[in-house]
Write a structure and sequence with these properties.
This is Oligopeptide transporter 2. By secondary structure, this protein is mainly α.
């Protein structure tokens, strides 16, 4: 079984033509000319078939082949049988009349007119087709079929080529899904990945097993079990359940994948517990296994409860494509599903599986070069090699501590490659533009010494004292998460780099901008989904009501998961959270949980919409760090608990929702996914908590999360959690705003931009048309030139997506991590997708999966073989040149534009420190 490619549509929509590359060679040109010469004669036979099918006759395989041969360009000399997905669409075409097809296209134009993911060529084509054969300048017979093929693809498949490449326009509900072997493999691999990822999570660098690696491992295990397990089973309520129901199916593979993708690592409370338990941090002796489990279960299942309620907003709508999940679907299809032999796309005959293995093998071998053998290719800061001690050159172009303005910054896929074959081109280029602009702003701030930034490294996420050293939070801590006032008066407040100040302001602006802009832009669909959810709860209507796309119609064959099931999970998780806050001395009031849920509910829908359409995750950690610092100034304990609740609420909900979208695309029963996700999340919680406690009590003679740990288990994330607890919680947001008064204004700027941009995009076109109809031609022309047309340019950009690019600074992140990626995105997501769409649909996501798996497995082997225990390094010029200059010194917080002033400090003078505690 295959997929319908853009070239298939084009060959059907334009009978007798092929892509230029696919038609290369004299033999194929001759075959194409022959098909064109025979078209008129063959059309008579096809018309007879169409008439017979419309009169009720069943379409036979011979009839399908004849129709496919005529319309899809499949001839005997191609040595290719008509694919099931092509013939499935053809069956729909022959029974559709022109009037119905035009109605479908008109509805599609209205639905997708502002959809940046809808192919522009397709939109232009259907806009031309709905005008009729004469105005479209197309032969009447060809026009009728082109209209029907476009309408059939939209109604019975998907308007998006990326979705068509990993889904089918048909479903077989009898294929086994929730089998014992699928449960066993999914749970075993989830448990193993959770244990390994939890154990190595505190290590720097960490070692992790991602879901793509698990997919590669589970497929041969499933195929093996299908061969060796006996067909033993029992019949329950008329359904037989067997150890071996037949061949390992694609749906079983997807079900097992969801079991280990929903929860396969340390849970969201992991680092919070380390900070609470360990003596070098808060040293809370009361933190027990019971507290850890109760609070972790609350945090893990908060997002799950909300995910079900968000289905109507970001799972069922056809416009929610979820680019993130497409490589997962593509890889599983390549590993499990057979393909038609001899299929040719743009001259390529290679199967998906073989292509994946070649991509995987090539990247597995290549990654040894930039990661171990020639690390200058990883950090290719070649411009700094010219003059390593040139400060300005290092800060502007540097890879490590600089800003990364380098046209060729890396040859490492793991730096600027992964994810760029998934994120839509329009999203990637808009984010990159904001990255370039925001970096220039930071450079200007730095050389202008804005807020004392020239006394710190240009692009650091550390906090600094007023003498330029790393801010030591333990100096001002009273040992209980609060501030020792006398020590603070002596030591002073924390200061931040220019990039860090800009980054925090950018986050503060992005939250309201996204909330208001997305809500205004998608108001109609949000209102529609909200009404459907209310009707479902109030009148027990179907959750599929109002969703008539092909995938939703196919999913109606399965039993629904009632909304009240998800409400029940949400209420139970709330009860666990309140119990944890009340039964143990957390210094956090129970009502804060309700506040977190209310705020998360407000932001979660815009966040999920961004993720579903533009592949942008809207993290909530900065938002809740800020709010906790306002609500509980001087209380570090409450600060980290509130942040854990809020930030993980969003990440868990995104995970659960994206897995439900996988199930939607793969046609997995919703109740099976509900049971599987619940079980996996529950077991994951007990595994990571058990591993955490064992490591705290027994690991490395009590050196866990200390800088002298021999195996590098230094817990950098725990350090950041503790530092933010003191800076946001103990030091307090009010004091930060006194130190950096620009920050609170960023909320207002984001609000104004979001509301203004949204209203202009929503109502601007209607205002313009009203002016055109009521004003004189001369008056309208003047206003159109100087107001309407410039404002209309705002439709080209999505400010929520664009400004997301401005957030990616500090902490080892700069323009170097995007520049090469934007080249990759342009080549694959723009040029190849448009020019060689058939190749793109078949291989693009497989290439992403192959490279990602190759990097992951290669990195694990290199780390275990060379770094863990042995500490092997290769010393030569290619591994030292990139670290020999101001770029690397800045990365290590040892390079600043200005020296400390003669008075011995910078910033606010002693005696004027902000002290609003």
């Amino acid at each position: 079984m295959g997929r319908t490619s853009e070239s298939d549509i084009r060959r059907v929509a334009r009978p007798g033509t092929d892509d230029a590359d696919a038609a290369a060679g004299d033999e194929k040109n001759a075959a194409r000319e022959k098909r064109e010469a025979d078209r008129i004669e063959a059309a008579r036979d096809v018309d007879a078939i169409v008439d017979a099918v419309r009169q009720g006759q069943t379409m036979t395989p011979e009839m399908r082949s004849k129709v496919a041969e005529h319309y899809a360009g499949v001839a005997e000399d191609d040595n290719v049988a008509p694919r099931d997905d092509v013939t499935a669409i053809l069956e729909r075409i022959v029974v559709m009349d022109d009037e119905e097809a035009v109605d479908i296209l008109v509805e599609a134009i209205a639905l997708h007119k502002d959809d940046p993911n809808f192919p522009h060529q397709t939109m232009a084509r259907i806009r031309r087709l709905v005008q009729g054969a004469k105005l479209a300048d197309i032969d009447a017979a060809d026009w009728g079929f082109q209209v029907r093929i476009e309408a059939a693809m939209i109604k019975y498949h998907s308007p998006y080529p990326e979705v068509r490449s990993v889904t089918d326009p048909y479903d077989d509900p009898s294929i086994p899904v929730e089998t014992l072997r699928a449960y066993v493999l999914g749970i075993v691999f989830m448990a193993g990945a959770t244990a390994i990822n939890t154990f190595f999570s505190p290590r720097q660098p960490a070692i992790s097993l991602g879901s793509n690696v698990m997919q590669l491992l589970v497929a041969p295990c499933g195929l093996f079990l299908a061969k060796v397990l006996p067909d033993w089973g029992v019949t329950i309520r008329g359904t037989r359940h067997s150890l071996n129901p037949g061949p390992w199916s694609y749906k079983e593979q997807m079900f097992a994948t969801i079991l280990f993708t929903v929860a396969n690592s340390a849970g969201g409370t992991y680092y919070m517990y380390l900070v609470q338990k360990l003596p070098q941090y808060l040293d809370q002796k009361w933190v027990s296994f019971g507290y850890e489990i109760v609070l972790a279960l609350a945090v893990q299942f908060f997002g799950f409860g909300f995910a079900g309620l968000l289905r109507r907003f970001v799972v069922f709508p056809v416009t929610a494509i979820w680019p993130k999940v497409l490589p997962i679907l593509a890889l599983n299809r390549a590993l499990v599903r057979p393909e038609p032999k001899g299929e040719v796309v743009n001259g390529w005959r290679m199967t998906r599986y073989r292509f994946f293995m070649l991509a995987f093998g090539a990247m597995f071998l290549y990654f040894w070069i930039p990661n171990t053998l020639f690390t200058a290719l990883h950090a290719f800061n070649w411009m700094t090699w010219i003059a390593p001690e040139n400060f300005a050159l290092g800060m502007v172009t540097g890879f490590y501590g600089g800003m990364g303005y380098n046209p060729l910054a890396t040859f490492d896929w793991n730096v600027a490659g992964s994810g760029y074959l998934v994120t839509p081109w329009w999203s990637a280029i808009q984010q990159y533009g904001a990255r370039v602009l925001s970096g220039l702003i930071i450079i200007g701030m730095y050389w202008g010494n804005y807020y004392w930034s020239a006394y710190t490294p240009i692009n650091s996420n550390e906090a600094f004292n007023n003498k330029g050293g790393i801010y030591n939070v333990t100096v001002v801590s009273n040992g209980h998460g609060g501030i020792d006032l006398d020590a603070y008066k002596e030591y002073g407040p924390p200061y931040f780099s220019g990039a860090n100040v800009f980054g925090q302001g950018a986050w503060f602006a992005w939250y309201p901008l996204t909330l208001f802009y997305v809500s205004i832009k998608f108001w109609d669909s949000l209102k529609k989904s909200g009404k459907e959810m209310w009707r479902s709860i109030r009148y027990r209507t179907s959750i599929w009501e109002g969703n008539v796309d092909a995938h939703s119609r196919m999913m109606k064959e399965y039993k629904e998961v009632p909304d009240w099931w998800f409400f029940a999970i949400l209420i139970v998780s709330m009860a666990f959270g309140i119990a944890a806050l009340k039964a143990w001395p957390t210094e956090t009031p129970w009502w804060i949980e309700l506040t977190v849920i209310a705020l998360s509910a407000v932001f979660l829908i815009p966040s999920a919409i961004l993720y579903a359409g533009a592949n942008i995750s809207m993290g909530f950690n900065v938002l809740f760090q800020l709010l906790a610092g306002v609500w509980f100034a001087g209380n570090a304990e409450a600060q980290i608990i509130v942040t854990a609740f809020g930030s993980n609420f969003n990440s868990q909900a995104d995970t659960y929702i994206s897995d439900q979208k996988i199930a939607h695309y793969a046609k997995l029963p919703p109740r099976a996914i509900f049971r599987g996700q619940m079980l996996a999340a529950l077991l994951n919680t007990f595994i990571f908590i058990g591993m955490l406690n064992w490591m705290v009590d027994n690991f490395d003679n009590g050196t866990l999360c200390k800088w002298n740990n021999a195996n590098h288990f230094v817990c950098t994330d725990a350090v950041l959690v503790f530092a933010s607890a003191v800076e946001y919680g103990a030091f307090g947001v009010k004091n930060m705003f006194k130190l950096y008064p620009i920050l609170p204004w960023c909320f207002l700027m984001g609000t104004v931009i979001g509301i203004s941009w949204g209203l202009i995009q929503r109502y601007g076109p209607s205002v313009r048309e009203t002016a055109r109809s009521r004003w004189s031609e001369a008056r309208f022309a003047t206003w159109n030139r100087y107001l309407f047309h410039p404002l209309g340019m705002l439709n080209v950009m999505d400010p929520a997506v664009t400004w997301a690019g401005a957030l990616n600074w500090t902490g080892g992140n700069n323009l170097s991590y995007a520049t090469n990626g934007i080249y990759i995105s342009f080549i694959f997501m723009y040029w190849i997708k448009r020019r060689y769409n058939a190749w793109w649909e078949k291989y693009n996501y497989i290439l992403e999966a192959g490279f990602d798996v190759g990097v992951a497995i290669s990195a694990i082997i290199q780390t275990l073989a060379l770094s863990f225990g042995a500490h092997v390094t290769i010393q030569w010029w290619g591994n030292t040149v990139s670290t020999a200059g101001f770029d690397f010194k800045s990365y290590n917080q040892n390079a600043t534009l200005l020296p400390i002033p003669d008075v011995g400090y910078f910033g606010v003078p002693p005696g004027q420190y902000p002290m609003d505690f």
